[in-house]
Amino acid sequence: MAFRIRHEVLELTTKHAFNIARASAPPVRRTVWVRIEDGAGAEGWGEAAANAYYGESADTVLALLPLYEKALNDAIGADADVLALERAESAVELAAGRNPSARAAMSAALHDLAGKRLGVPVWRLWGLDSAVPVSSFTIGIAEPEVMVRRLEEAASYPIIKVKVGTPEDRRVLELIRKHAPDRTVRIDANTNWSVKQAVALLPLLEELGIELIEQPFKADDIEAFRLLRERSAIPVIADESCRTAADIPRLAGAVDGINIKLEKCGSLREAVRMVHIARAHHLKVMVGCMLCSTLGIAAAMQIAPLVDWTDLDGAVLLESDPFTGPSLGTDGRLSLNSEPGLGVARR
Ligand SMILES: [Mg+2]
Questions:
Q1: Which of 4, 48, 133, 193 is in the most buried spot, having the most CB atoms within 10 Å?
Q2: Are residues 114 and 214 in the same domain?
Q3: pLDDT tens digit string along 258-303?
Q4: Residue 225: how many CB atoms within 10 A of its CB?
Q5: DSSP structure class, residue 259
Q6: Per-residue pLDDT averaged across 68-83, rounded?
Q7: What is the pTM of this model?
Q8: What spacing in Å lies between the alpha carbon of 262 and ligand 1's midpoint?
Q9: Where is the domain boundary, 119, 149, 173?
Q10: How far apart are CA 48 and CA 107, in angstroms?
Q11: Cα(240) to centroid of ligand 1, in Å?
């Protein structure tokens, strides 16, 4: 019995152009649907939503798949022990280093396969309950009036994450609060603020009742986070600054929480480790996503019962989603299902 890896490139289009402070939207996002087939004909699926900021593209993912197939077969192929997940993930990482979204797709597919073999969903395999915090819905950067229109289109979502990091931030946030007086509002500057800008905005953010501030500063500027946190009554969260568990100890004391994404940490098991290490440092935990289909969201959602905040709206921002499965409802609720593995099917 040997493992075979098949793949398909998915071309995903968002309903609206989706811009953030450090990158403007490409017209089409290419993600990779990875399928690991075991010798008995069972298949596990994962999605690699490669992100240029972390050094990947769909093409770098595709280049690695033959290496991963060989590594998997060398490591666990002889007995095809699909439950040797730790060993399988190590073999994949040793084959080609970081490549986090490529490895995350492999990890998701291996867990999907293991769950299917055992007939249980992954979250249940981990002994978790299916209750998950309500997700935010993200409003990307656009003209302020356009952002208000997006906000109104998303009127059913109780939690909004607003992308900031432009000269219009003050006006945008005042407008958003005016049009959404009762909704929870989070903000994410995607590395684009200076300490001076952040401190100057702080009184307004507190007055508007902003729930949390995500990644205000450059990824390696941990001192800036510490300075803001000393002055801020609003929790400060690290996203780009926190890729893997190894980043967490140096962030402790400088931030209030971390945002975990499979596309940064490279595996479901690493994501679980991150939750535990964050807790040991008294940090809050969010699980987030890149723009991806329901297949990518389903993998991240397996960890969501362990966290405080979720931001898993990647698939609902798409024009069309190739998969069905664990989903984000228009009321912001995330629903895990009881299907084996990740619980995802092709639409
Ligand atoms: Mg973020």
A1: 48
A2: no
A3: 999 999 999 999 999 999 999 999 999 999 999 999 999 999 999 9
A4: 26
A5: E
A6: 82
A7: 0.97
A8: 13
A9: 119
A10: 10
A11: 7
- Asked if residue 132 belongs to a domain, the reply is no
Ligand 1 center–CA 72 separation, angstroms: 32
Interval between CA 280 and ligand 1 midpoint (Å): 22
CATH number, domain of 308, equals 3.20.20.120
Mean pLDDT of 305-316: 97
- How far, in Å, from the CA of 86 to the mean position of ligand 1? 28
In a domain, 128, yes or no: no
Going from the Cα of 341 to the center of ligand 1, the distance in angstroms, rounded, reads 27
Which residues have a Cβ under 8 Å from the Cβ of 109 and sit 6 or more positions away? 34, 35, 36, 44, 45, 46
Residue at which a domain ends, from 92, 119, 146:
119
CA of 253 to the centre of ligand 1 (A): 19
Distance in Å, CA 136 to ligand 1 centroid: 12
- Residue 180 carries which side chain, given as an amino acid letter? A
Structure tokens at 8: 């398909």
Assess if residue 239 is contained within a domain.
yes
What is the DSSP code string of 85-154? HHHHHHHHHHHH---HHHHHHHHHHHHHHHHHHHTSBHHHHTT--S--PPBPEEE-S--HHHHHHHHHHT
What pLDDT, on the 0 to 100 scale, is given for residue 276? Answer: 98
pLDDT of residue 77: 74
How does pLDDT run across 10-37, given as a tens digit for each residue? 999 999 999 999 888 888 999 999 999 9
Please count the structural domains in the chain.
2
Q: What is the pLDDT of residues 165-211, one digit of tens each?
A: 999 999 999 999 999 999 999 999 999 999 999 999 999 999 999 99
**How many angstroms separate the alpha carbon of residue 124 from the centre of ligand 1?**
28
Residue 214 Cα to ligand 1 midpoint, Å, equals 6
**Which residues have CB atoms below 5 A from the ion given as ligand 1?**
188, 214, 239
112 CA → ligand 1 middle, Å: 26
Q: How far is the CA of 42 from the centre of ligand 1 (A)?
A: 35
Residue 215 CA, ligand 1 centroid: distance in Å: 6
Q: Which residues pair with 138 in a beta bridge?
A: 161
Structure confidence at residue 40 (pLDDT)? 86
Q: Which domain holds residue 181?
A: 137-346
